[in-house]
Specification:
Strand order of the largest sheet: 2-1-3-4-5-11
Number of strands: 12
Strand content: 15-25%
Shape: globular
Order of helices and strands: HEHEHEHEHEHEHEHEHEHEHEEH
Length: about 325
């Protein structure tokens, strides 16, 4: 009798387990589709302040991920950005003055952010850093960092260039003073068996970016690879290659719909995807988990979202996601 009862109970539990999770997922999906929260926690306010310039599609994807997580988590989400370090710090101060319940920031230029983040932690506002500044995140009092390790990502690029038989590469840095960009190029140079040079360009002036790359390719026909550090700059490099009459392969960090298409048609060689949607989504989710349940991920280490090398064999599978703006 006991054995039979155990079997009945076991079957019952299995039935609950196999349907309960799916039903919960379906409820969350319906709520998100209708713009409703999937939870009944308080209506907290989270602010995200990034170092993005205007018109950067990468940050559109980060923001989209954060906004969709905010809907699910019953969060009022505030987004602001500036590619000027001092202005970014002022935007963080504004969020502190608004007494937000959580703060998400990037640390592309960490020295400018140190003091204002100290004010945030002193005010009891939990902070999560995303995308850039993993080395400084813990030191500045953040709960965790969500993003890719820029040095590791750069090393992956060097390895990929080796696998493709490249001998001389150009690494394009479009934002001077951005520690993450320096780490990417340094990482690539570390593992690349060939010769790699850095080229600094004015990222806010795309014609200047194209002209600078074109001039370099014209002056050195031995360059057989150009690595840009953001998707919008890959297109400028492709145009520069054409006008310079160069045969260099163009590769890039970051992914969007245009890059995915260019990889498929072999206009670009490969892309390094750090999953920006995931950076925004997870940052909001982790703040919500901390406010709701005292949870923290990472164990004192960054929560890595990349790197993933995307080649022509991968790009077609991602087309659906890049076209809807989530990859």
């Amino acid at each position: 009798m006991g054995a039979v009862l155990a079997l009945v109970l076991g079957a019952s539990l299995v039935g609950c387990s196999s349907t309960g999770g799916k039903q919960a997922e379906e409820r969350e999906a319906r709520a998100a589709a209708e713009g409703r929260s999937a939870v009944d926690t308080p209506r907290w306010t989270f602010a995200m302040v990034t170092h993005s310039g205007d018109g950067d599609t990468f940050w559109d994807i980060v923001q989209r991920g954060a906004e969709q997580a905010a809907v699910k988590d019953n969060i009022k989400f505030l987004y602001s950005h500036s590619d000027e370090a001092q202005q970014q710090a002022q935007l963080v101060q504004t969020a502190i003055d608004q007494k937000v319940d959580g703060l998400i920031v990037t640390l592309a230029k960490p020295d400018a952010m140190k003091d204002v983040l100290a004010k945030a932690t002193k005010a009891g506002i939990p902070v999560i850093t995303v995308n850039s500044g993993s080395a400084e995140s813990k030191q500045f009092g953040a709960l965790t960092h969500v993003g890719q390790d820029e040095s590791i990502a750069g090393e992956a690029v060097g390895d990929e260039l080796n696998a493709r038989g490249r001998k001389k590469a150009l690494c394009i840095l479009h934002e001077q003073g951005n520690v993450g960009h320096e780490q990417r190029c340094a990482g690539a140079k570390k593992t690349f068996d060939g010769q790699m040079q850095n080229l600094y360009v004015e990222g806010t002036n795309m014609p200047d970016v194209q002209a600078s790359i074109e001039a370099k390719l014209q002056s050195d026909k031995n360059i057989d690879a150009v690595v840009t550090l953001g998707a919008p700059f890959a297109d400028a490099a492709v145009k520069a290659k054409k006008t310079a009459g160069s045969k260099a392969e163009i590769d890039t960090f970051d992914l969007n719909a245009k890059v995915a298409t260019a990889i498929q048609d072999k206009t670009l060689g490969f892309a390094v995807d750090q999953q920006p949607y995931l950076q925004g989504y997870e940052a909001v989710d982790l703040l919500w988990l901390y406010r709701f349940n005292g949870n923290a991920l990472g164990g004192g280490r960054p929560v890595l979202t990349g790197p993933q090398i995307i080649t022509s064999k991968d790009a077609a599978e991602l087309a659906e996601y890049t076209n809807r703006g989530t990859r």
